Amino acid sequence: MSRVILAGLRARTGRLLFSAIAIAIALAVAFVTGARVLDEAVGVGLRAELAGQARNVDASITAGLHGNQTSNPLNDEVLRKVRQIPGVAAAEGRLTVQAPLVGVTGRASDAAATALPADPLLRPYELVEGRYPETDREVTLDRRTATESGYRLGQPVRVLTEDGQQREFTLVGTFRPAVPGSQLGTGRQLLLRPDALRLLTPDGSYSEIVARATSGTDQRQLVDQITRTLDRSDLVVMTGAAAVDQLLAQTAPQTPDFARFFSTFALIALAVAAMVIYNTFGILVTQRTRELALLRCVGASKRQVFTGVLAEAAATGAVASMLGLFGGVGLAALLQLLIGAFGVEGEAAVHTPVTTRTVLLAGAVGVLVTMAASLVPAYAATRVAPVAALRTRSDGPTKAAHDSRLRSAVTALLALTGTGLAVFGLEAGAERGVALIGLCLLALLGAALAAGPLLVGPIVRTLGGVPRRLAGTPGLLACTNATRNPRRTAATAAALMLGLTVVALITTVVATAGHSVEQAIDRQYPVDYTLTSAVPPRPLPPALLETISTLDEVAVAAPSQSLGVDLGPAGGYWLTAVDGRAIGSLLRPGVLDGQLDRLGPDELAISRQLADETGLAVNQTLPVSTRHGRVDMRVTAIYDSVDGPDIDLGLGLMDLTTLDTLDPSTTGYQNIMVKMRPGIGLAEGRSAIEQAVSGSPLTQLASSEDLKKRAAEQFQQLLGYLWALIGLAVVIALAGIGNTLSLSVLERTRESALLRALGLTRGQLRATLMIESVLIALMGAALGLVLGVGSAWLISRVAASSAMPMTMTVPFGQLGLALATTVLAAPLATLLPARRAARRSITAGMAEP
């Protein structure tokens, strides 16, 4: 039997490879292995970046932590002692301070200034253009900032100091990180001499002291020597390699999130591919009825036939897996290039680590999925009676008529289960409700798959009315072919149905969420403008509030400020202090319990999240304290709010007068909310405010429309990314349509030749196959859109809250584009089989059995 299997593989190599590649099991495997390679690449890239930051560092000295405060900060005295230790070739103090850049428009943007090490070997960056600063009036910028801001060598660069003054430096060079494409410290960066850096901040302490060893001194020896010489228990001294490992351990746990998210879509692609594999092997078994029956006649057992089909599936899956492995490596590299194109300096550090585990994963996924999908066709092969070898192959009726009762029962059971889950999901909370709606979607998908063969006839007859009228004979033949084998047509459409279900679900949920956020911003944040600091740690000055409040165009200007407090047994949290009179006019969060029309001194409104985490309730009194003071506050309301760009009400709201008691040292504001007088247009209001803040470089101005626009952009970026990922599953499904019709061409060779002999032209034969592909695509797309939009409606109902009622928004334009793209792509997938069918000789075709 093994010889027969090998002979069959040689005879059908082209067809099997075509089925594996056309249904894109290789693409599905590429998705899975790509996620794995990308996950490992993140770790490799991160280690390379950290190693670049610590290059030539043999010893690292940092201050120990006592609670949240560093004790005995590193200073120039410690640095001098380290430099005098035997075995130290060079030592540098590392210090980075906030240094907002003032652009040509007079507005400030966040940036960080770093002290330039005197030792060239301890500089974790490379000079690109010009030189490093040699005087206290010179600066070197990172290349990306210089390019984006339009700075050229010799131009002045203005920087804000801690007291709000501006200092001017001359740009003398540009640099890049030691590791091209590094994502560490991706913000704006400046290099200054240490003395110039202290002009920006009076703090002379270092965050770290690094040392380079002399020749012949290893890292461990140097660390021991520094530890003995300094003899300070409050300092942490470790080797450069240990410092890299420590940073990697602190950073790495956050890195696999993207790869896990990527893997979710890989599972969808695998599910679609499994459907197409099942359909493909089912067709192959049907076409080989006489061959399998002949094997039974000459002594092959059912077990041998079953094993033979699975062996073909395993061989096909193995080849596809290897192709998918290479494709996954390429996909991971491509994603890194795309990410790098928008990263630091447009450079990409591409890493493609391929481990033994990744190779085994690729083989296991491809082979196991292919074999699992071929189990049913393999079992069907064992049911072929030996007498079938004596029959002429026919396309006769399928078993769909005989199992319609069973299908109807399964469909009804799954539909009822889905309905029940939907009902329970709508009554449950948001978290449990979404999970139940997910199970509901799976049940409804199962019902649609079970009912597929029963729906083929009615759907094709309905959809086929137009092509029958417009295309005549080809349209009639296409409808007849599509309904001839309902199980095959339904299985082919099922893969596309799954892909379009996910597309419709994601698109509708994102559109609904985006529209609902815009409505929530209008309802809860009815301001015209919001002023924020371009550098978050630097608050807006109180004088700015007075200036804005005195404008004739302004009706109300209310500030807000965040503060970290201790809520007694509940622990530490961040609260937001606002002008209590602004509640109800400029701030209208959704009230869940209590009353929130204003806030007075010693009154506290808490968010639903804080209430859930602490168990606090309305009218409960609790101690609120900082190191500067304490206030007993009463909870007056529990609210729910929507957060977005420049909008964050925090976990609790209190009056500004309470902030003065808790922390009298607080100066300035995080935000200033502005409402214009009636009759003042947005353009007129913006002009007045911009003129008023022209002398405050830290101030950024955003209108309510700007806030909604930024929120919409975030949703659109998310949608574009998700479309790109799920698009692969749709491509696999479309390839499955082409594959099914290609195999059907072989199955209908004699029939096509007879039609040609009766007068059907080659163009009409090609049109027949293309119309059939469109009918199959329309059936799958229609079912997918209905399931996806319906599930999105259920999710919107479950996810709705008092803070953000979800207004169902169906993006007809985007869904129409997805439908049109699918319908237009389906005929393209059949170009090759249609061309093959049309070029077939009539005489040769009639000679087929």
Automatic annotation (TrEMBL):
InterPro entries in alphabetical order: ABC3_permease_C, MacB_PCD, Macrolide_Exporter_MacB
Domain of life: Bacteria
Family annotation (Pfam families): FtsX, MacB_PCD
Bilayer topology: Multi-pass membrane protein
ABC3 transporter permease C-terminal domain segment(s): 264-384, 724-841
Compartment list: Cell membrane
Annotated transmembrane regions: 261-285, 306-339, 359-381, 409-428, 434-460, 493-514, 718-746, 767-795, 815-834
Keywords, comma-separated and alphabetical: Cell membrane, Membrane, Transmembrane, Transmembrane helix
MacB-like periplasmic core domain boundaries: 22-228, 489-691
Family: Belongs to the ABC-4 integral membrane protein family.
Protein name per its UniProtKB record: ABC transporter permease
Originating organism: Micromonospora sonneratiae
